[in-house]
Amino acid sequence: MNSEDEDWEAPLALPAPSYDAACIAQRGALAVETRRCVPEETAVALTYNGSTHAVMMATPSDLEDFALGFSLTEGVIARASDIDSINVISMPLGIEIRIWLKEERAKAYVGRKRSMVGPTGCGLCGVESLEAAMRPLPQVSRPAWRLTPQSVVAAMASLDPAQTLNAATHAVHAAAFWTEAEGLVALREDVGRHNALDKLAGALLRSGRTAATGIIVMTSRVSIELIQKAARLDAPVLAAVSAPTAAAIRLAEESGMTLIGVARRQDFEIFTHPDKIFSETPRHVA
Which residues are catalytic? Predict the structure, then answer.
């Protein structure tokens, strides 16, 4: 063994997406020592051609999907072929995702590079201007199919059985894609709702499809960043368990997206473009 061999260290294994934590549970009048499965939260640095672009707190799973989806929804790439390679490296302080862009895309990236350091799933931290934060979105495609109330209910119902990490931890978000013909196509989970949507975006990009043929369904509230990311996936419909913000409603209206919130069991509320679901105007209730 030479000196170079002595300096070499084997790469660290990626952390598991969950951790078995010791805790004391109060159950009525009884306190018991037990253990609780909790989600892991890891600092993930995304670098492009050797330059750090963002550091996000994320669940260490489906990280190549995360890299692809984040790159797409942040406008770094337009298609999967813009990326030359992705390497996920586990390090003592976290994980580094090294993304290498093709030459032409790398040149374009250098021209609009920004630095961003944010907390869990923060979608706008580090944006350097109001114009960048509120950038205009493309109009989403108008679907050839008509969504029905039954489809919305079925799409939302498909979330819970597929959330394996949340079943273990009860502490992570999910983003999924559902179509009338296929049912649940893909689902990704993360401690951050933006990260979950980015991972889903990467999964769709990897399979060569957009969200134009179905519904994106989520377990979170809907903020403006989620509308921005969904629009880049050409999603005509986004449905979520909780309510949207006012800014999210305005942006969904402008981009032609049907935004559905408070979708629980058989009930939901449509905030924009209800014509994609109802052929007639619903009756007014005072």
Answer: 122
